[in-house]
Structure formats: C-alpha cells, structure tokens
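Still learning. Any example?
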Amino acid sequence: MADDKAEGNPPEEVQVPVIEESSADAVTRNEPPPAEERPKKTITPGKFFQVKRISGLLSVVSFVFSLPVLSSVIWLLYMKSYDCESLFKLPKLQIGISIGLICVFFICNAALFLRARLQMVGIVLVMVPLTVMFTVGLAFLGANSMENRRIPATPLWFEMKIHDDNLWSNIKGCIYKAGICRDLAMTSEKLKSYDFSMKKLSSIESGCCRPPADCPLQYVNATYWEKKARTETDSDLHNPDCDVWKNGHNGLCYDCLACRQGYMKALQSKWLKLGVFLVCMALLLMSSHLSLFLVTMWELHMA
C-alpha cells in the first residue's frame, strides 16, 4: 500500500530562491561588472580611417625606399672590374655586398607583410640588417679610423695597399694595358700648351700621364715634356716626382707618388659613394619602418 501511494503522488518541487546580484556587489568583491554594464569604447570612424590611410602611405614609402637598394646591386655587379680592382680582390667584396643588399630588400618587404600579425618580430627582423648596412657604410666613409685599416675598401685600407711595391708593380702594368695615357695622347694631339692646361683630366691621367705641375718641364704634347732652364724665380723646393718622369710611353709618371695617389683617389671615389648610399638608405629605411611600426601599434590600439 505504501508503495502504491508513493507511485500515485509525485514528489513536490522544491523552489530555490535566486538572488540577483547587482553590479555594486560585484565591485565590492573586485569582480568585473557584467558585459552589458561595461562602458564601450567610442571610436571615431574618421580618425580610424585616417590612421589606416597613414599606415598604407608608410607601407608604400617603405617599399619605394627599398627599390634603390635593389638597383644598387645592378650597379655593383656592372662595375666589378672597374680600374683594375681585381688586383685588390674587391670583386669578391662587391659580390658579397650585392648578396647582402638583395637580402635587405627581401627582408624589408617581408616585414611589411608581418606587421599586421607579428609586429615585434617584423621590426626586429628589419632593424638588424639595416644596422649592419649602416655600420658598413660608415666604415667605407672612414668613420672609424682606429680599426678600418683591416676592413677592405676603406680609406686607410687603400692607403696601406697603395704603398705595397709588389702590388703597385701589377697595378701600373694594368693601367698601361688599359691605355689610359695612350687615349689621352690621341685626344690631345692638336692641343696647345694653354688648351691642354685647361683640359679636365681624371685623377689617373693627371697623376700618371703627365708630370706634376710644379716640375720645370715644358709642354710639347700630352705625353712628351722637355726640361726648361732653371730661372731665379723658380722655387727651391724640389718635387721628387720630377726626376721620376720619363718621356717614353712605358715610363711617363707610372713610378711617381702622384700616380699612386691619383689611382687611389679614382678607386676610392666609388667606394665613398657606396658608403654614402648605404648610410642614407639605412637611415631612410629605419625611419620609415619605425614610423610604420608605431602607426601599426596605434591602429591596433584603436581597433
């Protein structure tokens, strides 16, 4: 009977009172208020799109700045045998720099794609090669005169190499085979003394193909000079290169100190230009990528 009675009457439902908790109670327990009660950010659409526009503009600028880096590779490879540089083993250095600049180009543009997802990785990835590029450019300009004697293509390195007699013997043979003085003689064959003195000569032509200007020699043609009689007005200071000068095509002033200095000036000018280019491009790319990184962080903060 007890079992039938239990089956016929279902158990009574027990109601548990639900106590609604206010946001004030949540604050007292240091808990965040419900989502519907939190204040929402108010983002001005015009300001957000303005930041997006600045970000896009900086991306384009960074890409444009990387294009000269790639074009400099073509210039370096094209000029690899300029002025007998193979004797200094500089073509190998040029190829290494060209490969490095290609890597800089691709890294800079890869950082543009990583900026939306991996901001810190992108900025670190691009700053490391640009810092190396900036340092190499300063070395070519001779900024670090204490250590750059060991670094190829720096001013002190050229000065050390140019005073190596064994190396200079090969260099002057290369200059002779290049026909620089022969070409000067052919183009100046009909020039008078005054016209030749007004002719603009390269540093190699001025140092190797003609005697120094303070020598007591009289112009006959570009590669032939006669000794003048000494007068009272002549200076007592004697240039040792005046005794080295020879009128033969095999001699001229190839053994003069002025020839060594002229050749070093011609060879060094290209590497100085490369140093200026590397420093300027590294600073421009650093500025553009750092500005893009800051604008990207600002854009993510507003989103």
